């Protein structure tokens, strides 16, 4: 069954401006100073975060700590969902994740995709893929509209 994401408000250029605003919002978050990463939004309901797994994110056995998995999966799913909402910041209300392979040092990316929800609650999924193309983790989250206006956030600069 094919799912069609809800339309974003305005013409295509409006959606592109919204996507650039969300990318700026991601880059402005203080937590991202701890993680070398970049968000890319090219279409509604889909996101990609490129990041580098560095030894400073390892647990004692020499692979990425679960913190990194959760951060990248949650962000990828969140931004896939928030790409469909141009007026409000979404909040994560629940997130489930499954580890499938240790994530080692080097480049990786998280892919997010909207699954369902059109009004107040959105469901999105994400997966992490390592540099060899293998999936290392998968997760699903639910996200709810907040009362926080995107336009009121200093990091959100559409355009």
Unreliable spans: 6-12
User: Given this structure, which CATH class is correct?
Assistant: Alpha Beta
User: How much β-strand is present in the residues?
Assistant: 35-45%
**Count of strand segments:** 6
C-alpha end-to-end distance: 34 Å
How many individual domains?
1
- What is the string of SSEs from the N terminus onward? HEEHEEEE
For the biggest β-sheet, the strand order reads 1-2-4-5-6-3
User: What Rg, in angstroms, do the CA atoms define?
Assistant: 15 Å
Q: What is the arithmetic mean of pLDDT?
A: 92
Q: Give a short account of the largest sheet.
A: 6 strands, antiparallel
Overall SS class = alpha+beta
Helix content: 10-25%
Protein described:
This protein is of the alpha+beta class. It has a single domain (12-150), classed as Hotdog Thioesterase (Thiol Ester Dehydrase, Chain A, Roll). It is built from two helices and six strands. It has helices at 12-28, 66-82, and strands at residues 37-43, 46-53, 88-99, 106-116, 121-130, 135-149. It has a six-stranded antiparallel sheet with strand order 1-2-4-5-6-3. It is globular, with a radius of gyration of 15 Å. The N and C termini lie far apart (34 Å). Residues 62-137 form the Thioesterase domain. This is Thioesterase domain-containing protein. Keywords: Hydrolase.
């Amino acid at each position: 069954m094919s799912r069609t994401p809800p339309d974003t408000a305005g013409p295509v250029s409006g959606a592109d401006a919204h996507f650039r605003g969300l990318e700026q919002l991601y880059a402005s978050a203080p937590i991202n100073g701890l993680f070398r990463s970049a968000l890319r939004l090219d279409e509604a309901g889909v996101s990609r975060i490129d990041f580098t797994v560095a030894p400073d994110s390892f647990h004692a056995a020499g692979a990425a700590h679960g913190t990194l998995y959760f951060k990248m999966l949650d962000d990828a799913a969140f931004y896939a969902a928030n790409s469909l909402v141009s007026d409000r910041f979404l909040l994560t209300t629940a997130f489930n994740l499954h580890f499938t392979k240790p994530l080692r040092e080097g480049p990786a990316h998280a892919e997010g995709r909207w699954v369902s929800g059109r009004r107040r609650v959105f469901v999105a999924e994400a997966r992490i893929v390592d540099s060899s193309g293998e999936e290392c983790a998968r997760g699903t989250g639910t996200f709810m509209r907040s009362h926080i206006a995107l336009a009121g956030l200093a990091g959100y600069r559409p355009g």
